[in-house]
Amino acid sequence: MAKSDTRYTKEHEWVRLDGDIATVGITDHAQEALGDIVFIELPELNREVAASEACAVIESVKAASDVYAPLAGKVVEANQTVVEEPGIINSDAEGEGWLFRLELDSTDAFDDLLDEEGYAEYLETL
Amino acid sequence: MIDNTLADDPTPAPLKTTPLDGWHRALGARMVPFAGYEMPVQYDLTGELAARCRGGVLAEHLHCREKASLFDVSHMGQVMLTGATAAAALETLVPGDILGLKPGRQRYTLFTNEAGGILDDLMVANLGADRLFLVVNAGRKDDDFTHLAANLPRSVPVSVQEDRALLALQGPLAAAVLARLSPEAERLGFMGVGELPVAGIPCIVSRSGYTGEDGFEISVPSSQVEALADALLAQPEVAPAGLGARDSLRLEAGLCLYGSDIDEITTPVEAGLVWSIGKRRRVAWDFPGAIAICDQLENGFPRLRVGLRPDGRAPARGLTEIVADDGTAAGGITSGGFSPSLNAPIAMGYVRRDLAANGSRLHLIVRGKPLPAAVVPLPFVPHRYAR
After folding, report:
1. Cβ(B289)–Cβ(B114) under 8 Å?
2. Residues of A with Cβ-Cβ distance to B42 under 8 angstroms
3. Rg (CA), chain A
4. Burial A24-35 (b: 16+ CB within 10 A, else e)
5. Residue B322 belongs to domain with CATH number
6. What is the pLDDT of residues A45-71, one digit of tens each?
7. What is the helix (H) or strand (E) element at residue B298, kind and residue range?
8. What kind of architecture, by CATH, is found in domain A3-125?
């Protein structure tokens, strides 16, 4: 899927949509800021999460950080590869380093998230 | 998702800088506030240096364990005490044997208060000719200077070395590297100290450090620290390392961080630092807090600093609560994180004496859930000091 079909949050998550399935990860900016990632805790399958609900934890050598669900839905897949090898998030945050997939209650809110340009502009303000 | 991270230090502006500030930035350092200073936490290295070490806390840490790493620790306080009675005077503030410290030797000691609490930990070097050279923590140095000035007699002037910087060269290849720039330095034994030229620059060199590795701390005039740092970094085994690696290295080495693992509330007994109290001082009991410390040694003490290994991969950080199997409070973590050498989480903390034995099973409350952990001996990674 093209990068232009990716949406972003101000909490530095990215989301890609395939039908009503959203794949979620953290942005390259986020992994860069966090430094070496050493531990991931992902949400349990079938957990219902609300938009903006904390549902995963990323620990870097520096600190622990929450990951928030960008949209409401049910967790249908968690990336066990990053649990076993958290460094993948540092090397490919917006690809192989995806975290979990949500079956969305509704895809309507997807377009309300930041697009690539909007996220880039937001980063400029930080 | 990163709004709750990187909040390393609430120190208010304006921050001070070390004489190597521009040098760090040119190397790609990420600067963070620490103890009132802007300090490099890690480096984004480029070019030839990136080929030595890719940068970042993990790589900088592992480089130090494998080769030699250069740290700027110029934020630390450096003080010279002079006078024929300097050692006796300093002994009124610390439990270490300073009178017995020979010229050319350095020793770890503590400033203690009357309750037996620790005001700071420090290194004291006997430079000979009635001079003691002290290195104290950055975050405590202003209080330490006041403490010294207020309590030492006029015959022992306290001279804060504002115009000196401090570098640490640490790692198994540190001695071989430094020998090229200072053959005299390589002849120092562990905790030896000398006034020696390094790369032609007059320095105070001690064979010591805060990583558990062989290495040196080098006090140098601020005006020449950049030349010295460049000379050290010109050696192919050397890579720069930031405060992030410094912290994970010292945690693996089981060394205390003042303000986290020891403070005015903890005593040397609880902290497992009784070894730093001189034998003669333990007979005379003539240092601040001696009564409280003697009482703890004779009648027992409530808690002990221990090493902890969480069972899984989740790190448990400082301030994490520790509970016993029966659900009662067992203590708390004071330093915790991820060990790059062991590829596993490690922590230090204080636990109840009845739970402090090696192998004792405890639970660390991480994000509201009990994480099983075991008490283990310190250090986590064996020290490799020069013999």
Report:
1. yes
2. 35
3. 13
4. bbbbbbbbebbb
5. 2.40.30.110
6. 999 999 999 999 999 998 899 999 999
7. helix B290-299
8. Beta Barrel (2.40)
SS (H, E, C) chain A: CCHHHEEECCCCEEEEEECCEEEEEECHHHHHHHCCEEEEECCCCCCEECCCCEEEEEEECCCEEEEECCCCEEEEEECHHHHHCCHHHHHCCCCCCCCEEEEECCCHHHHHCECHHHHHHHHHHC
ipTM associated with this complex? 0.89
Return the residue matching tokens 């504002």. B162
- CA nearest to B54 within chain A: A36
Does the distance separating the beta carbons of A65 and B5 come in below 8 Å? Answer: yes
Contact A58, A37 (CB under 8 A): yes
- pLDDT tens, residue by residue, B348-387: 999 999 999 999 999 999 999 999 999 999 999 999 999 7
Query: Is residue B176 within 8 Å of B237, Cβ to Cβ?
Result: yes
| Structural domain total, chain B | 1
- Taking contacts as CB-CB distances below 8 angstroms, the residues of chain B near A33 are 2, 5-6
Q: Is B364 among the domain residues?
A: yes
CA angle at B12 for the pair B9 and B18, rounded to the nearest 5°: 75
pTM check: above 0.90: yes
Q: How far apart are CA B157 and CA A75, in angstroms?
A: 68
- The pair of structure tokens assigned to B30 is 């990420």
Say how far apart CA B121 and CA B116 lie, in whole Å. 13
**CB distance B55 to B28 below 8 Å:** yes
Containing domain of residue B363, as a range? Answer: 302-387
Cβ distance B70 to B246 under 8 Å?
Answer: no
| Residues of chain A with C-beta less than 8 angstroms from the C-beta of B347 | none
Asked if B71 and B23 touch (Cβ cutoff 8 Å), the reply is no
Is residue B348 in a domain? yes
Specify if B209 maps to a domain: no
CA atoms within 13 A on the CB side of B311: 12
Terminal Cα distance for chain A, rounded: 28
The CB density around residue B115, as the number of other CB atoms within 10 Å, is: 13
